[in-house]
Amino acid sequence: MSTKGIRDFRPQLHYTPIMGWINDPNGLVCVDGVYHLFSQYDPDVHHTGPLFWDHAVSRDLIHWEHLPIALTPDLLGSIFSGSAVYDKENTSGFGKDGKAPIVAMFTYHHSSEDGDHSHDYEQQAIAYSTDGVNFTKYEGNPVLPGRERDFRDPKVFPNPVKGGWSVATVAGDRARFYHSADLKNWEKTGEFGPEGNHSLGVWECPDLFPLEINGETKWVLLVSMGPSRENRGSRTQYFIGDFDGDTFTCDGRFDQVEFIDDGFDNYAGVTFSNTDERILVGWASNWVYATKTPTYDYCGCQTIPRVISLVDTPLGGVRLASKPVSDGFFDAGKPSDGTLPGEVFKLTVTGSGAASVTLGNDKGQTFVFGVNEANEVFIDRRNAGAKDFSEIFADDWFSENAVPRFYDGKWTLELTFDHSVAELFADGGTRAFTLQLYPDTPYTAVTAEGNAKITVHTLKSAE
Ligand code: FRU
What is the distance in A from the centroid of ligand 1 to the CA of 177? Predict the structure, then answer.
């Protein structure tokens, strides 16, 4: 168990493991109203060992029940990220006694015996379950064999053009697509990239899904990209375009990189399979400092699941917008009296022009956010709490950068605060910011400067 913690920072609305380390959300699938969330898991809170798939289920995406570890490393390697689908028609043949299987597709990461990571390799494999708890690895694994480096993170989805299934994987600095009728036999159908790449690192955790906008179906490709200093470590980019059943083509907005989140703690985000709405979960951390954050018996948490959509904005065209599912768990709110109600709350701030909001504690530590004179949204955690564990966690970037709004005039900022994670949504979620914050003592006061009205929401009592 770790001894690095200074106080209990465990969030309540964000998923954390009972103990140990987690990173990427994996295998997101909904079956009969039950959401399955798997996570990259290492029992060692400092993450020094091979990775497993942790497993939890929920009916409301906020209250999670922990289940036994779903996938364990074996002779083929460590279990890296992947996805899951509900194979209703039993195309895989893994169904039993009339029960359709959940089929998970994941990466086997083989670490080279000589310790030289450039000799590591990855292959894709599948596992299935008919009870939603116990998973059996397919005896024909790997289903996408080979000895390629940086070839991983399969995201399976039903192919609406050709029927059957497609999978998006990454391979170096691009995404690669395959097609299958039975989830076991795969054929390569196309590639996308590296156009628009913001990073010097490899591509990771792709996702490809359709969303409606202006009566049209557009396809959104998510790609998480490895640390690069200019972009503050691990960030997730999105591309909007089309999918012809074989491959993805981008509408061509490569001039400006679009991130799903403008904070620094939302990586490897992917969406649930088999849901009506498109729901995204990311890992609320950043590889640059993930192992060093000052939590105690757990390390890493997932973002609050977010319903994502495309919206047409007046200043920025078509954008991804996010809305956290936790909104439904907060009450209608009361005008702020300057105090904060504990360590889980939501603030709705409405205003116009330049204004800032400051959360503060009795140690003089502050987290500040708002809108500046240039109509940009800013966040500032330079003096928000513990920060010495990383050079970039709280450096001057925050005073020098802000992101443009996609609307003019009045604004609404919605902040969900949960012990050590803040998620800020501006203008209906067309800008989102996820940030870890580690104040030495809880924030107890909130103040505003400029034209801003704050409403404070607490959790509804039933929760
Ligand atoms: C992204 C990632 C994935 C990989 C996993 C390993 O954070 O690097 O590409 O499968 O984490 O834990």
Answer: 18
* Nearest atom in ligand 1 to 40's CA: 12
pTM beyond 0.85: the answer is yes
Q: Compute φ and ψ for 290, nearest 5 degrees.
A: -55, -40
> Do 273 and 370 fall into the same domain?
no
Residues 292, 351, single domain; the answer is: no
Contact 80 CB / ligand 1 (< 6 Å): yes
In whole angstroms, give the CA distance from residue 5 to residue 89. Answer: 48
Annotated catalytic residues are 24
Same domain (yes/no): 212, 170: yes
Ligand 1 atom closest to the CA of 109, numbered from 1: 10
**Are the C-beta atoms of residues 22 and 45 closer than 8 Å to each other?**
no
Q: Is residue 303 part of a domain?
A: yes
The pLDDT tens digits for 267-324 are 999 999 999 999 999 999 999 999 999 999 999 999 999 999 999 999 999 999 999 9
Decide whether any atom of ligand 1 lies within 6 Å of the 153 Cβ.
yes
User: Does one domain contain both 147 and 165?
Assistant: yes
Question: Locate tokens 């929760």: which residue?
Answer: 463
What values do phi and psi take at 81, rounded to 5?
-65, 160
- Residue 287 Cα: closest atom of ligand 1: 7
6 belongs to a structural domain = no
Indicate whether 318 belongs to any domain: yes
